[in-house]
Amino acid sequence: MLKVNVTLYKNTQSAREIKKTCFRKIICIFLCDVHTRRLFVTVKRCRCLVDIADAITTIIYVLKPTCLAASKLGTSHAVDLFLTSRTIIFGNSVFIVCSTTNTSFLTLTRRWSKQNDNITLCVDGHCGKSEKYTESETENSTYTLEIHNFNETDVNMVYACSFGSNNSLSNSVNVFLNEDHFEYHPNKSEISKKADRLDGFLNIEIVLKKVFPIPFCEFKYNDMNLSTAIKTISWNNGIFDSVQMLLNDHYIGFSSGSLNVTCRVGKTKISIMSENFSESKQSIKRTSRTDGTEMKKLIISLAVGNSVLVMIIIILFVNVSLQNKPVIIGQTAHISCLYLSNSSNPIKGISWYVKEGKNLIPIVHNGLSNEKSKYKETDGENNSIRVLNILKFSGKDVNKNYSCEIGLDEGWLYLDLNEKDYVCKLAAKCYENIV
């Protein structure tokens, strides 16, 4: 091993021969002293050990910069390491700067590594994966590691910059995921969005399949801010989040307008949706009974004294929909019954039914229920909406038909169990409720 080291550093020793000779004499004297067990000896008495002294001198002289640097430093913090940006955006490049004021380090091997996996990334500017990592010297004694296309495999790691073969002169920086300094912006394929307006009522569903941190979003239709009416639910998606935002049957009228949705992800504001709506008119008839729609006449007879006043109220349609999708299992589900008629007054005598198999079971009539702990009817946002509240919603309440009947008209809604509309936070309890 001594011969190998001498050969390896042979070219670097000729310029320092004088200093090496001094080291050789010191080593030789030390070896002779140990050999003869005398306190004072001369170099002439040590000729037999000169070869060994030369080899050891070479090793010490080569390692001298490291020894001197370590003795001067006493700590690894002479190597400064820091990130150039306080905000890291996934998909962009990340830069880590390594610098030192000690010029004696510059003759040593320089190495970048991931300490978690003990993986060497670059050595003296040469990187094993050049498409992923590159090193540049920005100025004297300052080196920058660029991590291209920063992704999930690059975060929650400890990056180190070191000098010397034993990495004793080094410093490290923690690159750990947190909501203050990291952002993941969803790309187009990770955004699902749809919006429609029917008879003046706006419905919006937006799903951000991958985002970090959870965004704050603003929904605006012309000058109308709809943000407070948005129902938002989020869940973990690996180290990131998924977010669903819903707006159900929110009345905005028939005039033309523009819908704009923007979200602030961390410190960055991004546009999620922009859609224009032309002026529309109220539809007269829905075509499908499965939509819970049909035009019929409700004839109400009012007794006035001895005479009978026949009042014809035209029900344009009845629409039944799940109001708070997705429903959290164990909480309250809200089913809305929207009807349009030629009367501006609220209509009495609304009945709610649930169909189990072939049986049609009444659950609420004119606001009254025999199962008050389970079903409750409340007012909606306007006189044309009634809401059925199913308390402590469970798996037993799905895979059933629910109907809202007004006189001779009715609307149906089938609640089928699916991952999109229902969320269970306690899997064990949900399973018990379903089975």
Automatic annotation (TrEMBL):
Keywords: Membrane, Transmembrane, Transmembrane helix. InterPro entries: Ig-like_dom (IPR007110), Ig-like_dom_sf (IPR036179), Ig-like_fold (IPR013783). The chain crosses the membrane at residues 298-318. Gene3D superfamilies: Immunoglobulins. Residues 65-174 form the Ig-like domain. It comes from the Eukaryota. This is Ig-like domain-containing protein. The lineage of its organism: Eukaryota, Metazoa, Spiralia, Lophotrochozoa, Mollusca.
